[in-house]
Write a structure and sequence with these properties.
Blueprint (H helix, E strand, L loop, with lengths): L3 E7 L6 H11 L3 E6 L6 H10 L4 E4 L8 H12 L4 E4 L14 H6 L29 H5 L1 H6 L5
Parallel strand pairs: 1-2, 1-4, 2-3
């Protein structure tokens, strides 16, 4: 059966790390790799603890002179990857498997000569709630379709 890695680069995602890691573990990913990019909250401590427990691989990834910390981190992840498949997602992105119970089952549905799978991105919105800072999401304000779905006096 194919093996898989879920990989993300995160910055200041402390409130969401445990949920994200748990979700991808439940889906059955064999490895979870998180690059931390200049976080100023407690993210690095949480990630280091998860790594010490063997739950994830944590890589401190400061911006430094990098033109694109995200692309550089993902290139590093590919170079170090020891699984058959790797999924790159953000901390607010969750792979939904509608017809399969696990990522292994999902991957087994493809012929062995498939070397890449595209996954559609779908915006789910904020359920008409303000974000954690009390302000409305900029996506909700910028996208006409979202504005019509969330009645906001502007």
């Amino acid at each position: 059966m194919a093996t898989s890695t879920a990989c993300a680069i995160m910055k200041g995602e402390r409130p969401y790390i445990l949920e994200w890691v748990a979700y991808y573990r439940i889906l059955g990913f064999d490895r979870i790799v998180i690059y931390s990019n200049d976080s100023s909250d407690d993210s690095d401590q949480i990630l280091a603890k998860l790594a010490s427990l063997g739950v994830i691989r944590y890589v401190a990834w400061p911006s430094g002179a990098r033109a694109s910390p995200q692309l550089d981190a993902y290139a590093d992840a590919v170079a170090r990857c020891d699984t058959d498949w790797i999924l790159f997602v953000d901390a607010d992105e969750f792979l939904l498997l509608h017809e399969h119970r696990s990522v292994s089952e999902f991957l087994a549905a493809f012929p062995p000569d498939v070397s890449g799978i595209a996954v559609n991105w779908r915006l789910s919105g904020r359920a008409a709630l303000p974000n954690r800072m009390g302000a409305w999401s900029s996506i909700a304000l910028d996208w006409p379709r979202m504005r019509s779905a969330i009645p906001i006096s502007m």
